[in-house]
Prior knowledge:
single chain; alpha+beta; two-stranded antiparallel sheet; 4 strands; 26% strand
Amino acid sequence: MIEKEKILDRTDPVCGLKVNMEKTQYTSRVGDDIYYFCSEECKKRFDFDPRKYSGDDDQDD
């Protein structure tokens, strides 16, 4: 049987830690995607440069 906590875990795209999406207060939305963070610092780093962490490689050069 899969534990509920494991289903709710997401990976913080900045530091790689597992984050419970129901418990964290740090989130950001990019398009239709919601990203979850372990700390305010990771959220700030992501918000400064979302493309670096979101996997969106489509850059306008």
